[in-house]
Amino acid sequence: MKAKTSRTQGSRYYPKRYDTNPESRDAILDEGLVCHVSFNIENQPFIIPTGYCRIENTLYLHGSVGSHFFMQMAKGIPVCVSVTLIDGLVLARSVFHHSMNYRSVIAFGKTREVTDSSERWLAAERFSEHILPGRWEDARQPDPGEMKKTMFIAIDIEEASVKFRAHGVIDDEEDLERNVWAGVLPLKLVPQVPETDEAGKTGLPIPEYIRHYSRG
């Protein structure tokens, strides 16, 4: 990656909320499911939410070859990508001091269309495994016709910023004796009971990788 610039330098007001460890960046990206990609076309800003996966220092997106946004990214344009994980609601005694515990990555890079067949197949597999480990080998994999309908976009990360909050309530001293509950309400992505599709063959056991699915 390039050296940090003003795009990713931490704020002087909250220097302790920035993490410069590359492993922290990768852990957040690997736990997240959705990223937001922002870019500019003819002075009009756009932002799109989409799934992604990470392979080393590269993010991969995939979508329809007919997608207007993906056709724009295929030209090779600068983008900003964000991923945020919410870990809890911080509830202070005053509304002013309410906050959230979170982990986030802001990454910058330039898009490129993936045209190499081996890289496309690797991206397809890693994308599936990022969302649901074990599914790629279990389900039918894409056939050549489906791959032709799919565009893969790669974003080599040039620089990135990791920011987080991971502590409790900060209240003004004069509010500490107020009769208001204060604390942290932890939040976590938790899977619910799987709902079996009844359209095809039924009676199949739910795979272990679905029954024990978790993020992070």
Short description:
This protein has one domain (15-191, 199-211): Roll (Pnp Oxidase, Chain A).
Characterize the structure shown.
The protein is of the alpha+beta class and 216 residues long. The chain has one domain: Electron Transport, Fmn-binding Protein, Chain A (Pnp Oxidase, Chain A), CATH 2.30.110.10. It is built from 6 helices and 8 strands; from the N terminus they run αββββαββαααββα. It has helices at 22-31, 68-73, 117-131, 135-138, 144-148, 208-211, and strands spanning 34-41, 44-51, 53-55, 58-64, 78-91, 99-113, 150-165, 183-186. Strands 1, 2, 3, 4, 5, 6, 7 and 8 form an 8-stranded antiparallel sheet that branches. It is globular, with a radius of gyration of 21 Å. The mean pLDDT is 94.
End-to-end Cα distance, whole Å, is 25 Å
Number of domains: 1
What summary fits the major beta sheet?
Answer: 8 strands, antiparallel
**Derived structural class:** alpha+beta
Strand content: 25-35%
**Topology order in helix (H) and strand (E) letters:** HEEEEHEEHHHEEH
CATH class division: Mainly Beta
- Supply the CATH architecture: Roll
Poorly predicted tracts of residues? none
How many beta strands in the DSSP annotation?
Answer: 8
Indicate the overall shape: globular
CATH topology: Pnp Oxidase, Chain A
CATH evolutionary superfamily: Electron Transport, Fmn-binding Protein, Chain A
What is the averaged pLDDT score? 94
Specify the helix fraction band.
Answer: 10-25%
Radius of gyration: 21 Å
Helical stretch tally: 6
